[in-house]
Amino acid sequence: MKHRRFPVGPLWTNTYLFWDEEGKGFLVDPAGETGQIARFAETQGIAVEKILLTHGHLDHAAGLSEALEMFGGKAFVPAGDASLVRTPDSGLRQLMGSEFPGTDDFSAVSDGDRLTAGTMEIAVIATPGHTPGSVCYLVTSGSEKVLVSGDTLFAGSVGRTDLPGGDPDELDRSIARLAELPDDLPVFPGHGPETDIGTERARNPFWPEETGRKGK
To answer: Is residue 216 situated within a structural domain?
Structure first.
């Protein structure tokens, strides 16, 4: 399994492109500037089969329609955030200079759903708190696994909960759920650098106290 991170858009959102040895891939959180991603995919011979959102905030979804036009494939959005993608907030669109009008050209995903792209399996893990529908994606290819955490978990921090729909108690429960994952699992957040579960267990001040700093 290979991947490439594209920090794009006004908030430098991490858009991720994953692909397997046969060049079949998927895109996570198309934030914009889709042309550069499409050019890279073309030079690498990557066919994007699916486009996934970790949540419905505009800085992660603004490039969805453009990505569907450029790549084809199918889009998947967390069920709890579907309304944010269908009808983005007009004031936020203006603030971010986004022309994304919203779309209903997607299928909804929920906790426990499994998708595939080439030889890769993608498991949906519900992690509400940053938004009501926030999810993480656990991607498996052979013995390799990675977690795409969106705005639930960052290197040294967690997603904010002071925006509409945010819930700090829900986020605490979601981080506790991620704490059950193994320490050596790489984590690809929605903003900022990559990390892993063990590093966050040891250093993240928002990590659940009951798991301590014991590691696994």
So the answer is: no
pLDDT score of 142: 95
> Total domain count for the chain?
1
| Residue 101 pLDDT grade (very low, low, confident, very high; cuts 50, 70, 90) | confident
Q: Which domain holds residue 83?
A: 2-211
CA pair distance 144, 87, nearest whole angstrom: 37
**CATH at residue 102:** 3.60.15.10
Reference 54, options 27, 34, 86; nearest CA is: 27
Domain contains 164: yes
C-alpha atoms less than 13 angstroms from C-alpha of 141 in its C-beta half-sphere = 18
Predicted TM-score of the model (pTM): 0.94
Eight-state DSSP code of residue 10 = T
Task: Copy the structure tokens of residue 100.
Answer: 């994304």
Give the per-residue pLDDT at 214.
41
pLDDT value of residue 216 = 36
Q: Which residue has the tokens 């699992």?
A: 185
Q: What's the distance, Cα to Cα, between the start and end of the chain in Å? A: 25
Contact 195, 189 (CB under 8 A): yes
- Let me know if residue 76 belongs to a domain: yes
Q: Which residues, including other chains, have CB under 8 Å from residue 76's CB and lie 6 or more apart?
A: 50, 51, 52, 53, 106, 107, 108, 109, 115
Amino acid at 212: G
Cβ partners under 8 Å of residue 30, min gap 6? 15, 37, 51, 60, 61, 62, 63, 64, 66, 67
